[in-house]
Design a protein that fits this description.
Beta-Lactamase; 171 residues; 6 helices; alpha+beta; two-stranded antiparallel sheet
Length: 171
Protein backbone atom coordinates (compact mmCIF):
# COMPACT_ATOMS: atom_id res chain seq x y z
CA UNK A 1 0.00 0.00 0.00
CA UNK A 2 2.88 2.36 0.80
CA UNK A 3 4.44 2.04 -2.64
CA UNK A 4 1.06 2.82 -4.24
CA UNK A 5 0.90 6.07 -2.27
CA UNK A 6 4.47 6.99 -3.22
CA UNK A 7 3.99 6.07 -6.90
CA UNK A 8 0.73 8.01 -7.05
CA UNK A 9 2.35 11.07 -5.52
CA UNK A 10 5.25 10.91 -8.00
CA UNK A 11 2.87 10.34 -10.93
CA UNK A 12 0.70 13.30 -9.95
CA UNK A 13 3.72 15.60 -9.72
CA UNK A 14 4.93 14.39 -13.13
CA UNK A 15 1.73 15.62 -14.79
CA UNK A 16 1.72 18.90 -12.86
CA UNK A 17 -0.84 18.14 -10.16
CA UNK A 18 0.32 18.92 -6.66
CA UNK A 19 -1.49 17.59 -3.60
CA UNK A 20 -1.15 20.33 -1.04
CA UNK A 21 -3.34 20.25 2.02
CA UNK A 22 -4.56 23.67 3.14
CA UNK A 23 -5.45 22.63 6.69
CA UNK A 24 -5.89 19.67 9.01
CA UNK A 25 -8.49 19.76 11.78
CA UNK A 26 -9.23 17.19 14.45
CA UNK A 27 -12.70 17.76 15.84
CA UNK A 28 -14.61 15.83 18.51
CA UNK A 29 -18.21 14.69 18.00
CA UNK A 30 -19.21 17.54 20.31
CA UNK A 31 -17.65 20.06 17.91
CA UNK A 32 -14.55 20.89 19.97
CA UNK A 33 -11.40 21.47 17.95
CA UNK A 34 -8.61 19.26 19.28
CA UNK A 35 -5.96 20.13 16.70
CA UNK A 36 -5.76 22.72 13.93
CA UNK A 37 -2.79 22.92 11.58
CA UNK A 38 -2.82 25.51 8.78
CA UNK A 39 -0.63 25.34 5.69
CA UNK A 40 -2.02 28.51 4.09
CA UNK A 41 -1.86 32.06 5.36
CA UNK A 42 -5.23 33.25 6.62
CA UNK A 43 -6.30 35.78 9.21
CA UNK A 44 -7.47 34.46 12.59
CA UNK A 45 -10.99 35.59 11.72
CA UNK A 46 -10.96 33.58 8.46
CA UNK A 47 -9.55 30.54 10.26
CA UNK A 48 -12.22 30.60 12.94
CA UNK A 49 -14.96 30.97 10.30
CA UNK A 50 -13.60 28.00 8.35
CA UNK A 51 -13.34 25.90 11.51
CA UNK A 52 -16.89 26.80 12.54
CA UNK A 53 -18.43 26.26 9.09
CA UNK A 54 -16.55 23.07 8.23
CA UNK A 55 -17.18 21.57 11.67
CA UNK A 56 -20.88 22.27 11.33
CA UNK A 57 -20.96 20.78 7.81
CA UNK A 58 -19.13 17.61 8.82
CA UNK A 59 -20.98 17.00 12.09
CA UNK A 60 -24.37 17.42 10.41
CA UNK A 61 -23.68 14.64 7.88
CA UNK A 62 -24.97 11.11 8.35
CA UNK A 63 -22.50 8.23 8.63
CA UNK A 64 -23.46 6.69 5.28
CA UNK A 65 -22.82 9.90 3.35
CA UNK A 66 -19.74 10.52 1.21
CA UNK A 67 -16.60 11.73 3.02
CA UNK A 68 -16.00 14.48 0.46
CA UNK A 69 -17.83 17.78 0.32
CA UNK A 70 -17.27 21.21 -1.14
CA UNK A 71 -16.80 24.35 0.91
CA UNK A 72 -16.29 27.60 -0.98
CA UNK A 73 -13.30 27.05 -3.30
CA UNK A 74 -11.94 23.96 -1.50
CA UNK A 75 -12.81 20.33 -1.07
CA UNK A 76 -13.27 19.10 2.47
CA UNK A 77 -12.24 15.50 3.01
CA UNK A 78 -12.87 13.89 6.36
CA UNK A 79 -12.92 10.56 8.11
CA UNK A 80 -14.24 9.60 11.51
CA UNK A 81 -12.17 7.45 13.83
CA UNK A 82 -13.92 6.65 17.15
CA UNK A 83 -15.01 10.00 18.61
CA UNK A 84 -12.78 12.19 16.41
CA UNK A 85 -13.22 13.58 12.94
CA UNK A 86 -10.02 14.07 10.96
CA UNK A 87 -10.79 16.86 8.50
CA UNK A 88 -8.64 18.25 5.69
CA UNK A 89 -9.18 21.05 3.22
CA UNK A 90 -7.58 20.69 -0.21
CA UNK A 91 -7.71 22.48 -3.55
CA UNK A 92 -10.42 21.69 -6.10
CA UNK A 93 -8.00 19.73 -8.34
CA UNK A 94 -6.53 17.56 -5.60
CA UNK A 95 -7.00 13.82 -5.25
CA UNK A 96 -9.55 12.89 -2.59
CA UNK A 97 -8.41 9.28 -2.21
CA UNK A 98 -4.79 10.29 -1.77
CA UNK A 99 -5.89 12.72 0.94
CA UNK A 100 -7.88 9.95 2.68
CA UNK A 101 -4.73 7.81 2.62
CA UNK A 102 -2.76 10.64 4.23
CA UNK A 103 -5.40 10.95 6.96
CA UNK A 104 -5.27 7.19 7.51
CA UNK A 105 -1.47 7.23 7.66
CA UNK A 106 -1.61 9.94 10.34
CA UNK A 107 -4.07 7.87 12.38
CA UNK A 108 -1.89 4.76 12.01
CA UNK A 109 1.17 6.61 13.31
CA UNK A 110 -0.84 8.10 16.20
CA UNK A 111 -2.12 4.60 17.06
CA UNK A 112 1.38 3.16 17.06
CA UNK A 113 2.79 5.98 19.16
CA UNK A 114 0.01 6.23 21.75
CA UNK A 115 -1.16 2.60 21.58
CA UNK A 116 -4.71 2.92 20.25
CA UNK A 117 -5.00 6.71 20.32
CA UNK A 118 -8.03 8.33 21.91
CA UNK A 119 -9.26 11.89 22.30
CA UNK A 120 -7.66 12.23 25.75
CA UNK A 121 -4.24 11.37 24.31
CA UNK A 122 -4.58 14.30 21.94
CA UNK A 123 -5.82 16.65 24.67
CA UNK A 124 -2.99 15.91 27.10
CA UNK A 125 -0.25 15.32 24.50
CA UNK A 126 -1.25 17.79 21.81
CA UNK A 127 2.38 18.78 21.22
CA UNK A 128 3.14 15.16 20.26
CA UNK A 129 0.17 15.09 17.87
CA UNK A 130 1.48 18.25 16.19
CA UNK A 131 5.01 16.84 16.06
CA UNK A 132 3.78 13.64 14.39
CA UNK A 133 1.81 15.69 11.87
CA UNK A 134 4.89 17.83 11.18
CA UNK A 135 6.91 14.68 10.52
CA UNK A 136 4.31 13.48 7.99
CA UNK A 137 3.46 16.74 6.25
CA UNK A 138 5.64 19.66 5.24
CA UNK A 139 3.90 22.74 3.82
CA UNK A 140 0.82 20.63 3.19
CA UNK A 141 2.70 17.99 1.19
CA UNK A 142 3.49 14.44 2.27
CA UNK A 143 7.11 14.60 3.40
CA UNK A 144 7.50 11.11 4.83
CA UNK A 145 5.24 8.16 4.11
CA UNK A 146 7.13 5.55 6.14
CA UNK A 147 5.53 4.90 9.53
CA UNK A 148 8.77 3.42 10.81
CA UNK A 149 10.79 6.51 9.87
CA UNK A 150 8.24 8.87 11.43
CA UNK A 151 8.07 6.85 14.64
CA UNK A 152 11.87 6.69 14.83
CA UNK A 153 12.08 10.49 14.54
CA UNK A 154 9.49 10.86 17.30
CA UNK A 155 11.26 8.40 19.60
CA UNK A 156 14.58 10.18 18.93
CA UNK A 157 12.93 13.46 19.92
CA UNK A 158 11.53 11.85 23.09
CA UNK A 159 15.00 10.54 24.00
CA UNK A 160 16.52 13.97 23.41
CA UNK A 161 13.94 15.60 25.69
CA UNK A 162 14.63 13.05 28.44
CA UNK A 163 18.36 13.63 28.07
CA UNK A 164 17.92 17.42 28.30
CA UNK A 165 15.67 17.06 31.36
CA UNK A 166 18.29 14.86 33.05
CA UNK A 167 21.00 17.44 32.31
CA UNK A 168 18.84 20.20 33.81
CA UNK A 169 18.28 18.16 36.99
CA UNK A 170 21.97 17.41 37.39
CA UNK A 171 22.92 21.12 37.33
Amino acid sequence: MLWILEDLSISLRAIGIEAPINYVLLVSRQGKTRLAKWFTTLSPKEKSKIVKDVTQLVLSRRTKMCNFLEYKDTKVIYRRYASLYFITGVGPQDNELLTLEIIHRYVEVLDRYFGNVCELDLIFNFQRAYFILDELLLAGEMQESSKVTVLQAIHDQDALEVEEANEERSK
